[in-house]
Write a structure and sequence with these properties.
The protein is α/β, with parallel strands linked by helices and 186 residues long. Helices cover 33% and strands 25% of the residues.
């Protein structure tokens, strides 16, 4: 079996590598707009499936191929928080998360020409109260700008997160234990 990760995320590559899973990378550009009324699980699993379908379609003769698509979002009060578009947008997101509990949802799709499996993992993340200065200093690092919810638990934002409930690797961007177990079925 040959595995392709349909994602440009360096964090997903790191997690798969740390788990000892051999793979190559191909990206897929898709429209990531949320459908009206689409909940976070439906949204992330749909995007993961669409990414994997695009990459799988590029390899019509590889019947031993499995493609892994994934998409992660942060949700607070049923509102999706994607990647910030500016430092001001990141400030708004971090203020909203400060002192609150939110969920990180990652949708996963594993596709081959014989089989398709989707999975969604949800982890609750507890943020401590952040001062305006802490928010400004964190944004100044540049770290929040390419991450859903404007933070990375694996980076310096870890100091603001005293507790999670669920899979840590899911918050990083890929629920690696779930993926490893799903891969066994292929």
């Amino acid at each position: 079996m040959r595995l392709i990760l349909a994602s440009a995320s360096p964090r997903r590559r790191e997690l798969l590598t740390q788990a000892g899973i051999t793979f190559t990378v191909e990206t897929a550009d898709i429209n990531e707009s949320q459908y009206p009324g689409e909940d976070p699980i439906a949204y992330t699993t749909r995007l993961a499936r669409e990414k994997a379908q695009i990459v799988l379609a590029r390899h019509p003769c590889e019947h031993d191929l499995v493609v892994l698509g994934a998409d992660t979002t942060v949700t607070l009060d049923n509102t999706l928080l994607g990647k910030p578009t500016s430092p001001a947008d990141a400030t708004v997101m971090l203020r909203a998360l400060s002192g609150r509990v939110h969920q990180v949802v990652t949708g996963v799709a594993l596709l081959s020409f014989q089989k398709a499996v989707t999975h969604a993992e949800t982890t609750s993340v507890f943020f401590q109260v952040m001062t305006e200065q802490e928010i400004a200093e964190y944004i100044a690092t540049g770290e929040p700008m390419d991450k859903a919810g404007a933070y990375g638990i694996q980076g310096s934002a870890a100091r603001f997160i005293p507790r999670i409930e669920g899979d840590y690797s899911n918050v990083v961007g890929l629920p690696i234990a779930a993926v490893a177990n799903l891969l066994k079925s292929f």
